[in-house]
Amino acid sequence: MNLRKTLFIVPSLITLSSVFCGFYAIKLAAVGDSADDYYRAALLIIFAMFFDMLDGRVARMTKTQTAFGLQIDSLADIVSFGVAPALLVYVWSLKHQPTAGFIASFLFVAAGAVRLARFNVLSMCQDGRPQKPGKYILGLPIPGAAGILISIVVANHAAQGNLSHPTYAWAMCGVTLGLALLMVSNIQFRSFKDLKLNLRTALLVAFAIGSSIVVASQLKPAFVLVWLLGFYIAIGLVESAWNLPKRLRARRESQPPSTPS
User: Fold this and answer.
1) Residue 69: its pLDDT value, please?
2) Fewer CB within 10 Å of terminal CB in the chain, N or C?
3) DSSP letter string over 90-110?
4) Contact 234, 222 (CB under 8 A)
5) Are the beta carbons of 153 and 38 closer than 8 angstroms?
6) Count of beta carbons in the 10 Å neighbourhood of residue 62
């Protein structure tokens, strides 16, 4: 057996494991009728996130990155992080506002599909080969958006809360629509692909660990994922606002001077 050819299969098998978790989560959300079923569906999407992080790293480590791998990864993401969390949050909460909840869930899936298509276009060289990931990603990555939704379900279950009550349906609609807008926005979020060991990185990691310990001790460990993903979004928003004047100035300087008529 050709070992090189076998190595090309491994990342795709890991990606398909993510699809399996997403498909199983859809099944639980569709036929389940209890908080425990929705909780298990949310955990399956978390497992899908793990496989999603693993397949790209395995491909880079084994130098088996291909255009096929890029495409199948995006198809897997729309199932595991688009359809699965959108359906889960609908049956868990948004169903109490049927029309608005359905629209919000669909727009989440639609925005995720647009975001993945844009990512694929920006990630490919002119010859069709995937290029090395940059420092920033345009728009909120769909696993991060899905992570916010399912981490709320997990944290609510751990705290025995009532966020699935009809009272909070409109708030969950707002969160779902906000995440959809972030996915198709021009806000740049860090990819952490080129993370280097320096003082800034050490301080960031120390703050993330320290704040997570505080959140876990003051609330419950299940709230840590909500906090970390929210912190990631906050970093993107703050950096975009901080760099906005610089980008506007560069855009003005790049425009040709207008000639008098």
Assistant:
1) 80
2) C
3) HHHTGGGSHHHHHHHHHHHHH
4) no
5) yes
6) 14
Per-domain boundaries in the chain = 3-250
- How far is Cα 7 from Cα 209, in angstroms, rounded to an integer? 35
Is residue 99 within 8 A of residue 130, CB to CB? The reply is no
Three-state secondary structure call for residue 34? coil
In the structure, what pLDDT confidence band is assigned to residue 132 with cuts at 50, 70 and 90? low
Which CATH code fits 3-250? 1.20.120.1760
Are 42 and 26 in contact, with CB atoms under 8 Å apart?
no
Nearest to 166 by CA among 101, 223, 107, 106: 101
Q: What is the SS3 assignment for 190?
A: strand
Four-point Cα dihedral 160, 163, 165, 169, nearest 10: -170
pLDDT in tens, 21-58: 999 999 999 998 888 999 999 999 999 999 998 887 88
Report helix angle 35-61 to 142-158, nearest 10. Answer: 140
The DSSP output letter for 192 is: -
